[in-house]
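Fold it.
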Amino acid sequence: MNTEKLSAYEIVEKRHIDDLNSDSYLMRHKKTGARVAILSNDDENKVFAIGFRTPPKDSTGVAHIIEHTVLCGSDKYPIKDPFVELVKGSLNTFLNAMTFPDKTVYPLASCNDADFQNLMDVYLDAVFYPNIYKTDKIFSQEGWHYEMENADSDLTINGVVYNEMKGAFSSADDVLSREIQSSLYPDTTYGIESGGDPDVIPELTYEDYLDFHRKYYHPSNSYIYLYGNLDIAEKLDYIDKNYLSRFDRLDVDSKIERQEAFKEPKEIVKPYSVLAEDKIDKNTYLSYNCSVGSTLDKKLYIAFDILDYALCSAPGAPIKKALIDKGIGQDVYSEYDNGIQQPVFSIIAKNADASQKEEFVETIRSVLKEQAANGIDKKALLAGLNYDEFKYREADFGRYPKGLLYGLQVFDSWLYDDNSPWINVEANETFAELKKEVPGRYFEELIEKYLLNNPHRTVVMLEPTPGLTEKKDEELKKKLADYKASLSKEEIEKIVKYTADLKEYQDTPDTPEDLRKIPMLELKDLKKESEKFIYDKRTENGVDILFHDVFTNGIVYLTFVFDLKNLDAELVPYVSVLKKVIGMMDTENYSYGDLFNEVNIKTGGITGSISTYTNSDDVSKFTTTLEVSVKVLHENLHYAFDLVKEILTKTKLDDIKRLKEILEEQYARLQSDLASAGHQTSAVRAMSYVSPAAAISDRTSGIGYFRHLEELLSKIDTPEGEKEITGTLKSLCNAIFRAENLLVDVTCTDKEYEGIADESKAFSDSLFTDEYDKNKFEVKTCRRNEAFKTAGQVQYVCRAGNFASKGLSYSGALRVLKVMMGYDYLWKNIRVIGGAYGCMSSYAKNGDSAFVTYRDPNLKNSIDVFEKASEYLRNFDEDERVILKYIIGAISDLDTPKTPSAKGTYGLSAYLCNSKMEKIQRSRDELLGTTKETIRGLSKYVDAFMEDDCLCVIGSSEKIDSEKDLFDNIEQLVNK
């Protein structure tokens, strides 16, 4: 880096970090004191982030609302939503903003140099010069506002953050996390809800909101992070001259105060909402929570994650096993949050009884005392260590740039010590040190110090309260009605006028001049060629092997793919049970706890999945597979094959007690997951009415599977039920895990491929050979419109269908349509005007399509918006620049950089879908060639899938009951 250009900065530290193969720089801006941390390396996926310490003083959600609103226009970019324009028209690999309990961070990433510069400039202008001072309508739209369409209307409250947090407060898991943190740190910022409590958000005034920005969004309170292969000196010079140098140093009091340690433990009981019809027995959350040192202790930062694994997270871990054996909770797990100044370790029992609280605490403390006195299983500690170290060295975060994850982790220490940004990302030395501690008593002493003899701990119990949501809704209605009754005629007219003015503001398009101020790439900046898939189909020693020659840094990625073509499709839900069971039960040579540890000592983990692959030549046909994946260093290749062989062919499926524990844990997790990810749940369910592929997804991970678990749990304690369940699982093993169904998928280099053929042959020979009844895999669908009630305060609304069944072929231009819908038509009408937190659409190659909303205060209004989408497309009349923006956004989504394992997955999918590069390239050409006429023509695709009229809604009883005529069937999401 050319330091001559950096006279505006002081270099605090400069050194090479071997662990990250990066040159690191820690700097300070001389004039303002802005902090700068840099990791310079050869990674083309560049990352920028600017963050601020933002400790709120109350739960009005001011930090969260600021995060939303600074991205709604700025001095240099005065349009109403530059963030959305960037998403639509940039090649970003990540673009978002995040509110944490004590900080707000604005990260972005891109592989394109010009694009990276554009994104960085828009974000810097947004945080330092936002339009929030020019109009209060930004605050009203994103935060909260009173709403009345006319003087006779009911007075209501609306706002994007307000509705987002109503959704968050509807999740018992989210409520518990919030109460745990608040219980341990009541006198600090961690005792406050930074996202905003819906009951408190309307107390936030416009002036208090502006004051928060004035105080905290200043360079003197900023943290700037840069990562990757970029001209650091050029970037820092630009940031100084265009932003930082314009400010003077300010003494910002944003220190994150520490909670004084408790003199004695505390107990807290809080309610959470369930439906009036729900049972309250076996529906309580119990938690044992401890404050654990400081996030600045780099050894403790990792050590407690390993302790978490050895004590409770791993199957068969002593605390988990002790609680499950006593029937305390259906799902027992632990959580370690080291992303705040004072980390938290929690042990949680879900679906327990309130009467079990004392036994819950006594059991935990008894096990902890035994572990501290007699020693933790050393193999469990080594397994936890290896698992964490493997993940750290692999640095595979899927679609997320690794520089982004490093950056967020940097904030875990940097926020509390200006000179310590790297301590938690530079971890090889810490792992080596911890390995030396395993034989001694280091981990046992951690138990004694932090979990047994630590008075700074709490027991938090969440008790189910039937009808709590309905009660709060009625209280709010009455409060608003009383407030309206207290208003004068003039005051009511003022609210009605403001409602109309806000809608007019939202409806008024940005001027073409302002829109052109948003920097944008050109068509020539986009790659014309599709990424080629890599695979070599081989048959060696009679075994089919699909090899992807990809550099993987010494890791071998193996996937054992089993075709389900000869299975009765009605058994698909049982296949999902089998997927969850394998690796979690005793085998001939291991207890399930020892097996799990052995897997994590010898490999980077073994996982199962069920996938469907649409035939590219005939989209009505598809292949369904059960896949078992393992990642392993080449020197441990033999162990990987042996462990998978052990799991698939030697699992003891007769252990009904253990089987029930697994099913109950799955049930408890799905119980919350289906509701909190209601947009995905409703979309899969709605598409399952007409799509066999979607029906498989629903029956293996959605509502269909949840109903299957309910049925199994209702009969597992009967002799007939036990016989049926264990018998079915055994017969499935024999029918699926057979040589004739097997494809071994391998991603590595030629060098690491050595030994694969012989290991694959031995593996194939070990599979089942007994005769079985072959069936034709046929999935039946049934169209029905459904609503599922929850105790939540928001809705997830989906309309779905299939265009291919109407004779339409997939076009690459549908990727452009996804961008248009998600960030223009649906965004404006569902989010900006409707107040929902999110909206999206999807169009698959097999024709499956959907419109869906997320944390939506509406139901029928959103369906009406869906109904008018086709008309919007038919009347589309934007210029070429706008269309190019959509094209760039679509290419950005398509060209997300792939990790080595993702390149292998891409090749496997291409093979199983019978994809040809010519067709993939044609699809890309269609995308790049999208015109105004193309977009208008896409209206027929929307008409085609909307014609199926598949509707699924997950939401509140009140909303669903008010629109009951829309549905063929209405039931509670959770019946048990």
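The longest strand covers residues 622-633.
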